[in-house]
Every structure is written in C-alpha cells, then in structure tokens.
C-alpha cells in the first residue's frame, strides 16, 4: 500500500480536460483550508508537493498526481471559500459537480472534515449530495492533532456529532479515518484503505 513514487501530471480547468488513461483515482474534497493539500503532502511524504497556504482558496484547478505509475490522487479546489466572487463559486460547483458525475475512473471521494471544529452545514450538505448521487465516499477527519490534553475529547465529540447528522441519509454509514498531517496519524490506515478499494 506504500507510495514509492509520485509525480504531478496536470492541472485541468474542466472535467473533460482530465487525463484519459483510465487509471483509478481518488478525489480529495473538502472545505477550503480543511487540509487537503497538507494531507496529500503527508501521504507522499513531501513537504511542499501540493501547494498549501494559510490563505483559503489556494487550489483552483483539478490537479492530478500519479502514484506508483498506476493510480491518481486528485486535489480539488475547496468549497465554501468565503471570499470567492459569486462567479468563481458558480464555476466551482459546475465544474466540480461535472467532474464527480462524469468521472468513470473515480474509485471514491475522500471527503475531508475538520475534526477540530463543530460540524459545518456545508460539509453535511456535501456528504448528502455525494450520497444522493451514489458516489462512493470515505470521511477523512483532519487536524486531529489540534485537540490535546484536557480537551482531548472534543475532536471525538465533533466527529460523533458529524456522524449523527449524516446517519439519517445513509443505510450504511460511510467508512471514516482520523488523520493529522502534522503527526502522521491515519496515514498508513488511509493508504491501506485506498489499496483495498482499488483491489490491489
Ligand atoms: P485550499 O487549497 O485553500 O482549499 O486549502 P486546503 O484544504 O488545501 O488546506 P491546506 O492543506 O492548504 O491547509 C490549510 C491550513 O491548515 C494550513 O495552515 C495548514 O498548515 C493547516 N493544516 C492542515 N492540516 C493540518 C493538520 O493535520 N493539523 C494542523 N494542526 N494543521 C493543519
Ligand atoms: Mg489546497
């Protein structure tokens, strides 16, 4: 399940510009600033592989990264970017929804949810949209390192609350993994999970 080699392939502005070689892929989706690019860097063990930023909205295109010359990780623009213009937001939803609905090689969406804050309605809405459209999904809770010491229970509470909000929309709740890009928590579990979904 380990990553031996990874290369950036291309950035695409539209679903129809994405690579056409039929390799399986996983899309990294989540609110702006949730830690998508950081998670990719942690997975591939390279500090500045996918661009990260304190400023939300850094990732604006569909970015394909080829792993072990056999499957893709796809970094997507974050949603809920408060400072985006209305037209930029409309672009986001049309091109990203187009990608999800038309990308036959998509194995699963990794929906990133910030475990250090209470559940956000936009994440619940996103999970429900994916569920309604029968798109396979795994919840990846991020920033699990942020809650330490005496407040150690809070991320668990946030995660439980989020799962409760989602549960009425799913007969079988989607799998979930707790991660931190800072400590590396969940990295191996997530890689194993993805290899099981790919069947190799
Ligand atoms: P956009 O590309 O703007 O959608 O953001 P993104 O989801 O790619 O987030 P990014 O990886 O750029 O991270 C946003 C901020 O959160 C950065 O300041 C990161 O250092 C921080 N961050 C990301 N992951 C973690 C984590 O696991 N723990 C902690 N403590 N901070 C994190
Ligand atoms: Mg990013």
Furnish the topology, listing elements before pairings.
Elements: E1 6-12, E2 25-30, H1 36-44, E3 62-67, E4 71-75, H2 86-102, E5 106-114, H3 121-132, E6 137-142, H4 154-167, E7 176-178, H5 187-198
Bound molecules: guanosine-5'-triphosphate and magnesium ion.
Magnesium ion binds at residues 36-37, 58-59.
Which structural traits does this protein have?
binds guanosine-5'-triphosphate, 200 residues, Rossmann fold, 5 helices, single chain, binds magnesium ion, alpha/beta
Mean pLDDT: 84
**Radius of gyration, taken over Cα atoms and rounded to an integer in Å:** 16 Å
Distance between the termini: 8 Å
Strand arrangement, largest sheet?
Answer: 1-3-4-2-5-6-7
Low-confidence stretches: none
Please report the first level of CATH classification, the CATH class.
Answer: Alpha Beta
The molecules bound to the chains, other than polymers, are:
guanosine-5'-triphosphate, magnesium ion
Number of domains: 1
Largest sheet: 7 strands, mixed
Q: Please count the beta strands (DSSP E, at least 2 residues each).
A: 7
Strand content: 15-25%
- CATH architecture descriptor text: 3-Layer(aba) Sandwich
- Give the number of helices: 5
List the secondary-structure elements in sequence, H or E.
EEHEEHEHEHEH
Instruction: Identify the CATH homologous superfamily.
Output: P-loop containing nucleotide triphosphate hydrolases
Give a written overview of the molecule:
Its cofactor is Mg(2+). By secondary structure, the chain is of the alpha/beta class. It has one domain: Rossmann fold. The chain contains five helices and seven strands. Strands 1-3-4-2-5-6-7 form a seven-stranded mixed sheet, sandwiched between helices. The longest helix is centred in the middle third of the chain and has 17 residues, at 86-102. The structure holds guanosine-5'-triphosphate and magnesium ion (MG).
């Amino acid at each position: 399940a380990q990553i031996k080699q990874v290369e950036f392939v291309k950035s695409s502005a539209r679903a129809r510009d994405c690579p056409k070689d039929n390799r399986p892929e996983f899309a990294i989706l989540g609110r702006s600033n949730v830690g998508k690019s950081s998670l990719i860097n942690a997975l591939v063990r390279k500090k500045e592989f996918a661009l990260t930023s304190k400023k939300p909205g850094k990732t604006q295109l569909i970015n394909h990264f080829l792993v072990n010359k056999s499957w893709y990780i796809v970094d997507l623009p974050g949603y809920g970017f408060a400072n985006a213009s209305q037209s930029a937001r409309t672009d986001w939803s049309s091109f990203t929804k187009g990608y999800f609905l038309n990308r036959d090689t998509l194995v699963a969406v990794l929906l990133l949810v910030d475990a250090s804050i209470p559940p956000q309605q936009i994440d619940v809405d996103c999970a429900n949209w994916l569920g309604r459209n029968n798109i396979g999904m795994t919840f990846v809770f991020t920033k699990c390192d942020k809650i330490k010491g005496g407040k150690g229970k809070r991320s668990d509470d946030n995660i439980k609350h989020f799962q409760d909000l989602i549960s009425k929309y799913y007969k079988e709740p989607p799998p979930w993994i707790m991660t931190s890009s800072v400590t590396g928590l969940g990295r191996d579990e997530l890689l194993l999970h993805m290899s099981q979904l790919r069947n190799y």
